């Protein structure tokens, strides 16, 4: 009999322990821990999306167009993506301004005809933009370049405008540097073109 009582007591203790365990209230998750986990997941999602965003960069070629090459009317322009042209032209018709007193050139944007692509000088240069909106904003900056010197002065002609336009692209990190090929063409032709076109 005492043995039976001992067995019953042992069984009762085990049962009570089990019931106490399963009936214990759940410990609430710490709110701060929840927020930390959520922030980490958000950061990981953002990090995962960044490479895809970078892969969507708009990359377009940059060329030099020399119109009327070798003639007294030679004119330089920058062509981006084969169709977006940027150059600088005289503010007034030559007949309306006295010789040597011309106003500074006025930057313009124009559409370059794709069928004339073969006439472009390859600069080995590619411009990158995050979005089309950014690209259009940069294009507006190119036509807002201020030409402070007169076209007969060093720094005031169409060749100088193209150089300034490339500098805008470089300063905005859209191109890594001024294309070396452009620098060579500019240095090798600047004096002769300036003399032939402007007589100075």
Short description:
Helices cover 45% and strands 19% of the residues. With 200 residues, the protein is of the alpha+beta class. It has one domain (58-198).
Walkthrough of the structure:
- It is built from five helices and five strands.
- It has 200 residues and is an alpha+beta fold.
- It has one domain (58-198).
- The protein has a five-stranded antiparallel beta sheet with strand order 4-3-2-1-5.
- The longest helix is centred in the first third of the chain and has 25 residues, at 31-55.
- The radius of gyration is 36 Å and the shape is globular.
- The model is unreliable at 11-29 and 49-53 (pLDDT under 50).
Furnish the topology, listing elements before pairings:
Elements: H1 2-22, H2 31-55, E1 58-67, E2 75-80, E3 84-89, E4 106-111, E5 120-129, H3 132-142, H4 158-171, H5 180-198
Signal peptide: 1-24
Keywords: Signal
Shape: globular
- DSSP E strands, number: 5
Question: Portion of residues in helices?
Answer: 40-55%
The radius of gyration computed from the alpha-carbon positions, rounded to a whole number of angstroms, is 36 Å
- State which percent range the strand residues make up: 15-25%
Query: How many individual domains?
Result: 1
**What structural class results from the helix and strand content?**
alpha+beta
Q: In order across it, which strands form the biggest sheet?
A: 4-3-2-1-5
């Amino acid at each position: 009999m005492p043995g039976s009582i001992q067995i019953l007591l042992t069984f009762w203790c085990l049962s009570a322990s089990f019931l106490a365990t399963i009936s214990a209230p759940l410990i609430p998750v710490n709110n701060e821990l929840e927020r930390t986990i959520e922030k980490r997941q958000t950061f990981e999602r953002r990090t995962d999306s960044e490479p895809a965003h970078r892969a969507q960069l708009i990359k377009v070629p940059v060329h030099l167009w020399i119109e009327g090459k070798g003639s007294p009317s030679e004119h330089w322009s920058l062509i981006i993506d084969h169709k977006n042209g940027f150059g600088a032209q005289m503010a007034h018709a030559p007949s309306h301004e006295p010789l040597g007193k011309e106003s500074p050139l006025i930057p313009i944007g124009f559409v370059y005809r794709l069928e004339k692509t073969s006439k472009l000088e390859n600069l080995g240069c590619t411009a990158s933009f995050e979005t089309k909106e950014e690209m259009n904003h940069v294009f507006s900056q190119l036509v807002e370049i201020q030409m402070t010197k007169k076209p007969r002065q060093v720094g005031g002609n169409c060749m100088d405008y193209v150089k300034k336009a490339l500098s805008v692209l470089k300063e905005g990190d859209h191109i890594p540097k001024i294309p070396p090929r452009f620098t060579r063409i500019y240095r090798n032709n600047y004096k002769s073109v300036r003399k032939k076109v402007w007589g100075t």
